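Encode chain A's predicted structure.
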Amino acid sequence: MLTPEQCRAGRALLDWTQEQLAERSGVCRSTIRGFENGHHRLIQANRMLIEATLEAAGVMLILADTHGPGVRLRRPPQS
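Encoded structure for chain A:
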């Protein structure tokens, strides 16, 4: 499940603003802002759109383990 911290970190790895994530995902910027600031949870449809958008751009969402959830960028294909 996507956390606010993962959303912010994923955007940071891509150097995207909330507005850019909103445009690419089709989720309202105010929804992203409220989620990242911890004001509300995402409905499933919006969570799936944001996750799919971040993953399509190369962000790997790492499930929580003993160290918590995380993110990383996929290694570009080697030629």
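Residues 4-73 form a domain with the 434 Repressor (Amino-terminal Domain) fold (CATH 1.10.260.40).
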